[in-house]
Design brief:
Structural class: mainly beta
Strand order of the largest sheet: 2-3-4-7-6-5
Radius of gyration: 15 Å
Strand content: over 45%
Number of strands: 7
Number of helices: 1
Length: 128
């Protein structure tokens, strides 16, 4: 996986949660649609991804992430399920695609812990 940490100027950054860039498998769904995609970045409070249809901001979602953890010589996948809400939708010019920002508004402490653990492990690996 080719991931990088997004560096920002703390004075300009309004987000409180640290984000990492990367492609984590993600499924978002509502009563009207199901979309399988990948994250473009991830934090403990939300995700940013690209989808193939317009999703109205403030749409409530069911979110599923598949986090890959390296354990010794194998990869173990942890499934995170939570509720989310679309907070921003931006059209990608000439592609028919949309970048959406999702805020996790209903997540268990266990699943939030898995995301935090994943981010910490990724950052530790980057600092080696």
């Amino acid at each position: 996986m080719n991931e990088t940490v997004i560096q920002t100027n703390p004075a300009e950054e309004r987000r409180q949660a640290l984000r990492i860039a990367g492609n984590i498998p993600l499924k978002i769904s509502s009563d009207d649609f199901d979309v399988v995609t990948e994250t473009r970045n991830l934090s403990c409070s939300g995700a940013y991804c690209r989808v193939n249809q317009y999703v109205e901001p403030m749409t409530k979602l069911k979110v599923q992430l598949l986090l890959p953890f390296k354990r010794k010589d194998k990869v173990v996948t942890k499934k995170v399920s939570c509720g989310g809400v679309i907070v921003r939708t931006d059209a990608v010019l000439n592609d028919g695609l949309y970048n959406v920002a999702i805020f996790f508004n209903d997540i268990s402490s266990r699943d939030a812990g898995y995301i935090a653990e994943y981010i910490s492990a990724f950052l530790a690996q980057q600092n080696q």
